[in-house]
Amino acid sequence: MLSASLGSQCEKEGDIIDYNVGVVLHKNIGDLVNEGDALCTVYLGTKEPSFNPLDCFKIETF
Asked: Would you give the distance in Å from CA 25 to the centre of its chain?
C-alpha cells in the first residue's frame, strides 16, 4: 500500500504511474536484525508525498 500511495499504480483512470517509486525489502519476518541494519529502501520518486512515509512502519521487539 505504501508503494501505491506514492504513485506506483493508478487509483483512477487517467492517473500517471510514477515508475521511480517503490519499496525494496531487505529483511523478512523472522530474520535476525542487528542494530544499524537496513530493513528496506523506500524510493519516493519525483513528487513530494502528502504524508510521512516513515509513519507507515511499526517496529517491535519480542
From this structure: 9
